[in-house]
Amino acid sequence: MTKHPKTHALVHQEKARTTQSQRNVLLFSGMASLLILVGFVQSWNVAFSILNMCLISAIMALGVNIQWGYAGLFNVGIMGFAALGGLAGVVVSMPPVDAAWEAGGLGVVTGLVAGIITLVVGMVVWRFGERWGRWRYAATGCILTIGYVFARTLIEPSIEAIEAVDPARTGYLGGFGLPIIVSWIVGGVFAAAAAWVVGKISLGLRADYLAIATLGISEIIIYVLKFEDWLSRGVKNVTGLPRPVPYEVDLQANSWFVALADDLNLSLVDASSLVVKVSYAALFTLVLLTILWLSETALRSPWGRMMRAIRDNETAANAMGKNVTKQHLVVFVLGSAVIGIAGAMLVTLDGQFTPTSYQPLRFTFLIWVMVIAGGSGNNWGAVLGGFLIWFFWVEAEPIGLWLMDVLTSGLPPSHWLRIHLIESAAHTRLMTMGTILLLVLRFSPRGLIPEARRSAF
Amino acid sequence: MESAMNALILIGNYIVVPGLAYGSQLALGALGVTMIYAVLRFSNFGHGEIMSFGTMLVILTTFAMQSAGLAIGPLPTALLALPVGIFGAIGLCLLLDRYVYKFYRQQRASPVIYLIVSIGTMFIVGGLVRFIIGPRDRNFGDGERFILKAGEFKANTGFSEGLAIKTAQGITVLTTFFVVGLVFWFLNYTRTGKSMRAFADNEDLALLSGVNPDRVVKITWIITAVLATIAGTLYGLDKSYKPLVYLHLLLPIFAAAIVGGVGNPLGAIAGGYVIAFSELAITFAYKKVFAYVFGDGILGDGLLQLLSTDYKFAVSFMILVIVLLVKPTGIFSGKTL
Amino acid sequence: MSALVGTAMTGGYGGADILRGCTISANSGEITVIVGPNGAGKSTAMKAMFGMLNLRTGTVLLDGKDINGLPPQNRVQCGMSFVPQTQNVFTSMTVEENLEMGGFIRGDDLTDTIEEIFNLFPVLREKRAQPAGELSGGQRQQVAVGRALMTQPKVLMLDEPTAGVSPIVMDELFDRIIDVARTGVAILMVEQNAKQALQIADRGYVLVQGENRYTDRGAALLSNPDVRRAFLGG
Questions:
Q1: What dihedral angle (degrees, nearest 10) is formed by the CA atoms of A257, A261, A267, A268?
Q2: A149 contacts B124? CB cut-off 8 A
Q3: Is the alpha carbon torsion for A323, A329, A332, A338 positive or negative?
């Protein structure tokens, strides 16, 4: 009997897929053993705090993978979208500050409404003024400026009033006092809204424009969060966000928990913080798996097939009547929503919102390294990349310090070079990440878990 | 009449003079970005760090010269150290091109891959800079601080507002004038410059005409490195040097390049000044100016400022957005190099 | 003697062969035209002779010298010149700069050659300081031809020079090409406008599926009833 060549090829493909999935299992178990190693060598508390951040990084990486891997969109504003998610955490979960609302709530709301009306009127005038020539620019510009000044005048006194309300503790409007878990969805919505605006402006133009526009929007989001105290207290930070999991002190007060800690042979403090971290890990894992399942389903659906077709040959897809820009907008909004969700989860884990910690380029870049090293276009790759890169990001500092220490051990401890090198060890992290990115792109551009080459039919 | 003059002097002192200087620095930066875009066809996110790297070398050399007692009278020693920074930055750019970008050129990689690669180099160079000089603020200006002091101006003219011009601002404008002139002369009147323009305009036809692509790319990097180092040093002399600030300069520089039309050198220069003047004009508090014009007291207690100075980086973004919405090809569209 | 001869050329862009043993030659001072239906391999044949694709078999001789394997740039140095069908000028550069770029490879003084080209295409002298992108289609083609002549080639190859220009401009362009041929250059061109092209051709090739179908003087092909019926629309 002769084998049909196509069957033969299929068998071959099947075999390749099996070895790849074996490799994947190996990679993920390797990652798990790294975390377990940390558990034994450093402590389980450290291991779980790394794991929690790994989970959040993995979700962010999934969001970026939706944009980059599915559609080839380059988003440089990841931290901006994550910060919006963080803002959602504050707005949703913190109790409202009634005195602040009384002082200037109405003013702020009317001011914002006036601002929105200005924008809408400006856009309408712009749209209808196509034949006005230079007047079109002048009219739109005048409307926007006057409306802006008017809204500012409305809002300014209210902001001052709000910020004057007990500035040491509040000085902002507060939130809605809802369970913080709700903010995970709201964070996604916030980020999606911002992404829609950015996408509407810059998609359909050259790829670089999206990159530059997202860089810009993320810088602005973070500036707003830093300087608009009435919104989220600015650099004064919002601390003490409510938790979705029990507090350590409450656990320690429980008699059954004391007994449990005793059984586990752990100190009460260690045991309680471990339980808190494990609960977070469970929640985060649930979210990660849900998003992973959703994105995998989407990828396999006809929609996912179309997205890949568009990514691989935009011109052909355009010619087939697919509205590339519209589909790109959808993908961009979805991916940013996932990043927003992860951002909200991040503040939930931290229990505080600190705008200065969102360094626009630095962490954005880290997420990028995760996606590319993990395997662009492959969700499992993004997850693995999220775990692996975060793990090394955290562990690189102690390793780097140790390395510098060893390298300079021949020099006396007070030697200027030794001091300089040890002080500068922290900066090697970024260099390392840059190097990893370049090496992966150059020598293994498809990443650790490459995108499966699905046949087109 | 006198109060009107005072209002003008205020605007001159806080918008025109600093705007000319800042605009020149942005223009030089944007010119580098635009050259890379025109010839290598990607937006180089590493440009800010190249500026930072060159400036760092200038600073280190300046410090060495200062301790050796070298100085050039009233001018900052950094000018003497500039060649060292320029050669260092050229070396860096050529190394990056040889070991990073060349590979992707041969692959004919898509612009977005270049973009990612350039971000990779940005972090490597940025890390290197922080490793060598540290993340702190550095002041390296010396020599005479002012060409025109506000107090002297007041004493000599009798106006109640003063006009100050820093040496660094004067040097910036003069240097920019000279460097930009040189670049334009090179592009328009030399054989090599013309071949670069030809390559940027139509790569295939340029190859057919016998233009050597490797040479064009190399010269582009060299010019970019020169421009970046000069821009970075001038900015550092005018304000101060801090690695993080140079990272943030990327956005206004890109905005300047896009406003003028990416790939167009004239546009990059114009864009630099557009961004700089808008940034200053929008974040300037006009209270005193209006007080001179309309008299005191009728204006309430607002600062009459369109946007707080906290948001000065937002200005470049706003302008960028307006350009993308209204005319994505930029003011000087349709022309490269 | 023929300035340029491609003998028994076979090859394509990987995959199936587009050229299947076709032979084309161009003589100095003459206009040679390649015509044929779409997909016949007209442009491919010309590109093969210019070194833009690798032939599997066959030879290309320039002035009796084997130039097989030389890349296009080197062929330019040997005295060949090529005008692509599209994007054949530097749009952002002035007419004069376009001509200078055409002679870039020479590296000596170009003033005399530019003067000769201005004499051939007087309109370019008027527009010398204008960017080529601002010119009309016909003028642009003149810039493109002028640019290619800057190397003072022995052979000038034109890929559909009249594509997309009006009939009046086409006639004008053909007149210019005749002028160029009179200076002793061998002209080889591929044309969609077969009838008009054959009218000015000293020699014509009809290619079908990468093979020579008819080869004759231009006028003879025009009067050949078989050619008329099959390729010139009656």
A1: 0
A2: no
A3: negative
Residues A230 and A329 in one domain: yes
**Domain range spanning residue A384?**
362-457
CB nearest to A211's CB, from B113, B115, B314: B115
Q: Is residue A45 part of a domain?
A: no
- Could you tell me what percent of chain B has a pLDDT over 90? 51
B135 reaches A (C-beta below 8 A): yes
* 8 Å CB contact between A180 and A90: no
- CATH H superfamily, domain C1-78+194-234: P-loop containing nucleotide triphosphate hydrolases (3.40.50.300)
Neighbouring chains to A with at least 3 Cβ pairs closer than 8 Å: B
Quick one: pLDDT at residue A277?
Answer: 92
pLDDT at B298: 61
For residue range A14-69, what is the model confidence (pLDDT) as tens digits?
A: 666 667 788 888 889 999 999 998 888 888 888 999 999 999 999 999 999 999 98
The span from the CA of B257 to the CA of B266, in Å, is: 10
Paired residues of C65 in beta bridges? C62
A442–B contact, CB cutoff 8 A: yes
Q: Which residue has the tokens 């005038």?
A: A125
> pLDDT digits over A74-93, tens only?
888 899 999 999 999 999 99
Q: Rounded to whole angstroms, how far apart are CA atoms B214 and B266?
A: 25
Task: Return mean pLDDT, chain A.
Answer: 86
The percentage of chain A sitting over the pLDDT mark of 90, rounded to a whole number, equals 30
B117, A438: Cβ pair inside 8 Å?
A: yes
CB atoms within 10 A of CB A137: 14
Who among A202, A207, A220 is closest to B314 (CB)?
A: A220
The neighbouring-strand residues paired with C6 are C24, C60
Task: Confirm whether A56 is domain-assigned.
Answer: no
Q: Report the sign of the C-alpha dihedral through residues A368, A374, A378, A382, in that order.
A: negative
Number of domain units in chain A: 3
Within 8 A by CB and 6+ apart from A395, the residues are A38
Residues A225-266: tens digit of each pLDDT = 988 888 888 888 888 888 888 888 888 888 888 888 888 888
C155-167: pLDDT as tens digits = 999 999 888 888 8
Q: Is C211 helix (H, G, I), strand (E, B) or coil?
A: strand
Q: What is the pLDDT of residue A3?
A: 43
Q: Give the residue on B whose Cα is nearest the Cα of A200.
A: B325
DSSP labels for C103-117? Answer: TTTT-S--HHHHHHH
Could you give all domains of chain B from N- to C-terminal order, each with its CATH number? Answer: 2-326 (1.10.3470)
* Whether residue A368 is found in the same domain as residue A398: yes
Share of chain C above pLDDT 90, in %: 41
Of B195, B210, B335, the CB nearest to C92: B335
Q: In what order do the strands lie in the sheet with C2-11?
A: C19-27, C2-11, C57-62, C65-66
Question: CA nearest B45 in A: which residue?
Answer: A212
A-chain CB neighbours of B325 within 8 Å are: 201
Minimal CA–CA distance to C194: which of C22, C27, C34, C47?
Answer: C34
CB B320 within 8 A of CB B259: yes
Beta carbons of C76 and B337 less than 8 Å apart: no
Nearest to B209 among C92, C102, C131 (CB): C102
Q: How many CB atoms lie under 10 A from the CB of residue C233?
A: 8
Return d(Cα A452, Cα A21) in angstroms, integer: 10
